[in-house]
Amino acid sequence: MEFGARDALPGSMLIVLVDLLPTALALAAYHLSQRFSDRTGIWVLMDSSRGSPDELKKTNKGRSKTNCMAKESLLKQKSPAEFFAENKNIAGFDNPGKSLYTTVRELVENALDSAESISQLPDIEIIIEEITKNKFNTMIGLVHRERVDEELYDDFETTKAREKRLAKEARMQEIQAKNVAHGKKLKEPPALKSGKGRGEASFFKVTCKDNGRGMPHDEIPNMFGRVLSGTKYGLKQTRGKFGLGAKMALIWSKMSTGLPIEILSATRGQNYASFCRLDIDIHQNIPHVHLHEKRENKDKWRGAEIQIIIEGNWTTYRSKILHYMRQMAVITPYAQFFFKFISDISEKNLTIRFARRTDVMPPAPLETKHHPSAVDILLIKRLIAETSKQTLQQFLQHEFVNISKSYAERLVGEMGPDFSPKMAVKSLTSHQIVRIHQLFRQAKFDDPSGDCLSPAGEYNLRLGIIKELQPDMVATCSSSPQVFEGHPFIVEAGISLGGKDVKQGLNIFRFANRIPLLFEQGADVVTRTATKKINWSSYKINQMQDKIGVFVSIVSTKVPFKGTGKEYIGDDITEISSAVKSAIKQCCLQLRSKIVKKLQARERQERKRNLTRYIPDASRAIMDVLEEMAQNYEPKRQRHDKEDDELLNKVASKEITEMTFGESLSQFVEQVDYEMALEYATQSGASEEPRELVYLSSLEGSYRYVDLGSPVFVFRLIT
């Protein structure tokens, strides 16, 4: 390579030696020299072996195109199923134990929704069967293989570790022996670490059967094998959190066992039952059907039966699953649940039936329209794309709540000269849509009503608490519909005192859209309100010693969950926090009135007991005085009234004795106590006779009726 300066060129010459520069830098130097050569006199002579600048430009363009193609090839897409498979903790599948709990929860809630959608009293059967590793291997056709290299396994114990463990056990035995010798109470030995390795998994077959609507034959594959597809999407109160349902359980089954799900379903009046065995193609988010056929249905059975085999952990999540079933029985006393756990170890077998206590069901939630203050730009664009209305005024009037025809005209007039009521809604530009959104955020609209919501109802909540906890006292309260960010919500609360299986102190039971919330309780608005914002002592309740049950249910078209798992509602939302506090206080006021009356009745009983205890001594002392007066009594001398004379004559003739006098005093105490009890019963609205809870069974067959309800009872008039 040669470089030189040309004397004819004016100005100083800059000679740059380029020997090992890459092609890209050489080309940049060439462009630089072409741009500034007239002013600075920069010349760059390049090695001819690298080609001319034009050739270099072509070469570089080719390489740039290749690099761009390479970069484009690095862009990948994920299906919804693949996303949730990689982020399964979002949907509650953090570990095998919680995955078992979440699978049960999803299947039970789907079964409830299916039955309630056709106004059928839910009858749900849930069975969990433990499958040992050997049985699972037999199911999938895997031959059992003995270990060859023990040190390869996670539960392998070295000689040093074994000696250390044995020495620790020996020390513990010595300590226990000394305690026995000194007569001290034996302590439970610390649990040894399980030798179970990470690869030693537990498997469970979960079966859920219901008497609900059933599923159409052709839609079953997509209902279970395609994530983010379902029948619950829309603006209404729903039990689900993500719209995944049993699909996430199927994904977990595919990840942990590789086995498909089995569905048996039949709809009303169908003479066949649909059977489908399928799994999901996670990468394409489509169902992979193994078998899909129609089977005979002679009994005209209607409903669905779902069976799935997953990895799980019953030991650590047994209490959570049972608490979930119990709380579900509290919030849905009109449903009947049959729960069964089956194991090869007979001691672990468990059967529980949560009986139905009423046939009064809450109304089904209704789908509603969006409130103007709760929409964003993207939602407005989607509504415009989906609407069947032609003009802007019609769009505003029919696609949103609380916008009348006259108010829609006023809104259009406020939007500016570029808008008119008759303009085509499909012709709106992005800037115009932004203007509509800005006006929606600033304008004044009436709050949405709560007619679309379906709370459990005070009657059902009270009956569920009494049925499951059997408390000494219970009070319930339901708030009127309130609004948070354009979404209506209703808060129902119940407070119980005493009961079975209730610990001392506060026992919090939280529900959102009529499903129990068991995790992340400490950060929830209900927990923080009950522990920090309620002065329990002012309501005659001992927060530390009394067995207090706090039940709060929140229903809304959009529950403002916090966290990725959607397991709690934060206390930073003023509207909800205030409503929860007010509902709990209303229940506490009811309880305080009952507690005060109970304390008064207890005081009366104590007074009666004290009087009864002193009757013998009092009657003996009084009779001694009367007998002495009777001995010194002189009828001729009028020293006493006529009534006193008669009394002394009776004492003298033994007509009144110590025994008869004591009986008279006892009758008097009983009469006073009865009159005071009658006055108390009249004030509290109770009858004179003792009351007993009576549950009436519903009539068999079809009949017409009208329900007349109140917070404490439902009267059914059969016509």
From TrEMBL:
Residues involved in ATP binding: N110, D210, T231, K232, G240, K241, F242, G243, L244, G245, A246, K247, K566
Subcellular location: Nucleus
GO cellular component: DNA topoisomerase type II (double strand cut, ATP-hydrolyzing) complex; nucleus
Residue ranges of every copy of the DNA topoisomerase VI subunit B transducer domain listed in the record: 448-607
Catalytic activity: ATP-dependent breakage, passage and rejoining of double-stranded DNA
Keywords: ATP-binding, DNA-binding, Isomerase, Nucleotide-binding, Nucleus, Signal, Topoisomerase
GO BP annotations listed: DNA topological change
Protease as UniProt keyword: no
UniProt GO MF annotations: ATP binding; DNA binding; DNA topoisomerase type II (double strand cut, ATP-hydrolyzing) activity; identical protein binding
NCBIfam families from the UniProt entry: PRK04184.1 (NF003218)
Role of this protein: Component of the DNA topoisomerase VI involved in chromatin organization and progression of endoreduplication cycles. Relaxes both positive and negative superturns and exhibits a strong decatenase activity. The B subunit binds ATP.
Name used for this protein in its record: DNA topoisomerase 6 subunit B
